[in-house]
Amino acid sequence: MRLRHSPVRSASNTALPAAIAMTCAITLAACGGADGEQGEDPNAEAAAQLHDAQPIHVGDVTLLPESSEAGTYSELVTVQYSEEVRASTELDKPECMDAANRWGDLDTVRGAPASVAAYEWDLGNISSILVQLDEDSAAEALAVKPPEACAEYTATYEDGSSSEYGVTDLDVPRVGDESRAFSIQVSDDDGQNHMYTVMYRNGGLLGTTSVMGPGEAEDYEQMLVDFSEAAIKRQGQML
């Protein structure tokens, strides 16, 4: 049976701009959208196993099953919603479209089994994604980075509003076989929000841990590493 739940909005997220979906499809709590009828997914069984390998508790972080889903990556509600937002958004630097999530356009990723899990935490919202690949494909996805010009860019949305984006690297300890970390700052009329992400490879598994909230990097860096290490440990137990 395929695990699939529609993303939901939480009160703490309503101030986050919808364009977060464009920069990171995995941040479920910031996304909306209804789950339609789906055909049989050939990746259902593998995706369900990935879903079972997601952490349940890490410190005071709690899993939100109703905001999580599993299946073929390109068919996830979260991914499809982000693509809808992307299609209706204009950038002053078109090459920066989906800058932090460009790996998700790889054919090997789009057709792979995937699991996305959302969590609540006092300092923000956390999401975890797992994609089952082979080691070479996982390494290729991890190596995909945004152009240097995308350190700063502006997005204008369908309703005429806009946000300023900034993408910078984060210096955190290595996670898994190899990893990289970055932050995205989003500024608009409502203020600033941040997303901090660790992207890692664990054998043939590609994983990301993202924390979204208004705080600074030092508030989230340890959680990024602790959560990702807990995720890798659980993967070793369950897969």
In words, what does this structure look like?
- This protein has six helices and ten strands.
- It is an alpha+beta fold and 239 residues long.
- It has one domain: Protein Transport Mog1p, Chain A.
- It has a ten-stranded antiparallel beta sheet with strand order 1-2-4-5-10-9-8-7-6-3, sandwiched between helices.
- The chain starts with 19 loop residues before the first helix and ends with a helix.
- The model is unreliable at 1-38 (pLDDT under 50).
What is the percent of helical residues? 10-25%
Query: The CATH topology is what?
Result: Protein Transport Mog1p, Chain A
Beta fraction: 25-35%
Structural class estimated from helices and strands: alpha+beta
CATH class: Alpha Beta
Q: What distance lies between the first and last C-alpha atoms, to the nearest angstrom?
A: 18 Å
Strand order of the largest sheet: 1-2-4-5-10-9-8-7-6-3
Please give a handful of descriptors for the protein shown.
Lipoprotein; ten-stranded antiparallel beta sheet; signal; alpha+beta; 239 residues; disordered N terminus; globular; Protein Transport Mog1p, Chain A
Task: Give the arrangement of secondary structure elements.
Elements: H1 20-23, H2 44-52, E1 57-58, E2 61-72, H3 77-87, E3 90-91, H4 107-110, E4 113-121, E5 124-132, H5 135-143, E6 152-156, E7 162-170, E8 178-188, E9 191-202, E10 205-213, H6 217-238
Antiparallel strand pairs: 1-2, 2-4, 3-6, 4-5, 5-10, 6-7, 7-8, 8-9, 9-10
Give a short summary of the structure.
By secondary structure, this protein is of the alpha+beta class.
